[in-house]
From TrEMBL:
Protein name: Ubiquitin thioesterase OTU
Function: Hydrolase that can remove conjugated ubiquitin from proteins and may therefore play an important regulatory role at the level of protein turnover by preventing degradation.
Protein's organism: Chaetomidium leptoderma
Keywords, comma-separated and alphabetical: Cytoplasm, Hydrolase, Metal-binding, Protease, Thiol protease, Ubl conjugation pathway, Zinc, Zinc-finger
Domain annotation OTU: ranges: 131-190
Domain OTU1-like C-terminal C2H2-type zinc finger: 267-299
UniProt lineage: Eukaryota, Fungi, Dikarya, Ascomycota, Pezizomycotina
Enzyme Commission number, as recorded: 3.4.19.12
Reactions accelerated catalytically: Thiol-dependent hydrolysis of ester, thioester, amide, peptide and isopeptide bonds formed by the C-terminal Gly of ubiquitin (a 76-residue protein attached to proteins as an intracellular targeting signal)
Keyword Transmembrane assigned: no
Length: 304
């Protein structure tokens, strides 16, 4: 009987089929061909656990592993000799990956040794043009539920509200998160970095995603085996009874709070990127946008 196994590797997501009475060696060779990797480790299940693929065990049947429908994470293993500590004087330094507000990468992640990886910003949404797609989905949902999302709830006529929401420079909030929770049948747990408050949208659903709110931006939280792997192999969906994930994300929020990785939108100093106007808070920004049509703003850092 054929079984299907999903693979997540640095090359992206894929799927393989194999007879359930095949050997582990046959599965390993199939994964090598599919991912074009020659040396790797395998993890599967939830929480992730290692699959022993030692040569001495590869004659065993995969039937007892119960891999049907599982997602197997394929993590490359580097077998090249270590680079000498001293580099030639002409060697260019390796560029650091971009992280928000200049915070170092190790400060926007937390090691999670119990699960063999890290909790960090990441996770692929799996949509083409995700920002536009999500905005359109929210707008259509509002227009299709006029009794639930009326002028009293939205603060303005639904047609006007949805027109604004489709624009890339409009910020979403609790209404949008609640709607996305319904659309994707997921609990969305949002942790406010400044207050460390946890808001849950769609409680009672089987699975959840976790996001951190920094006052303006929402950053998706994921589990990654290695920070150098692409986001396609991150795990960003968990069972809602997995409280350890929420606790770990809360710890990450505490670290970011200590680094002032948030914007207080009530009194932060804001600058218009179009005309260099300077104001304070979102109310001033909204007034300036109404008066000028300018909608590109940035926070100004005030130093002593």
């Amino acid at each position: 009987m054929l079984i299907q196994i999903s693979l997540r590797s640095p090359n992206g997501q894929s799927r393989v089929q194999i007879e359930d009475d095949a050997t582990l060696r046959e599965l390993v060779n199939l994964i090598k061909a599919k991912t074009e990797l020659s040396n790797f480790s395998l993890k599967y299940g939830y929480p992730l656990r290692s699959l022993d693929i030692s040569p001495s065990l590869q004659d065993a049947s995969i039937k007892d592993l119960k891999l049907r429908g599982e997602t197997v994470v394929v993590a490359p293993v580097d077998t090249t000799p270590p680079v000498p500590a001293l580099q030639p004087a002409s060697a260019e330094p390796k560029p650091k990956p971009f992280t928000p507000k200049g915070i170092e990468p190790d400060e926007t992640s937390l090691e999670w040794p119990e699960r063999g990886g890290y909790i960090a910003f990441g996770g692929a949404i799996g949509l083409e043009n995700p920002a536009t797609t999500l905005r359109n989905q929210v707008a259509e949902y509002i227009l299709n539920h006029p009794n639930e999302y009326n002028k009293a709830i939205l603060g303005e006529e639904p047609q006007r509200y949805t027109t604004r929401m489709r624009q890339m420079d409009t910020w979403g909030g609790a209404i949008e998160l609640s709607i996305l929770s319904d659309i994707y049948n997921l609990e969305i747990s949002s942790i406010d970095v400044k207050s460390l408050r946890v808001d849950r949208f769609g409680e009672g659903k089987a699975n959840r995603v976790v996001i951190l709110y920094s006052g303006i931006h929402y950053d998706r939280i994921a589990f990654c085996m290695d920070l150098s792997y692409p986001v396609e192999v991150d795990v960003s969906r968990w069972a809602t009874d997995d409280d350890q994930v929420l606790e770990k994300a809360h710890q990450l929020a505490q670290r970011l709070q200590s680094l002032h990785y948030y914007t207080d939108t009530t009194d932060f100093v804001i600058k218009c990127e179009v005309c260099n106007w300077i104001g304070q808070g979102t109310r001033d920004a909204a007034k300036h946008e109404r008066e000028t049509g300018h909608s590109q703003f940035g926070e100004m850092q005030i130093t002593d």
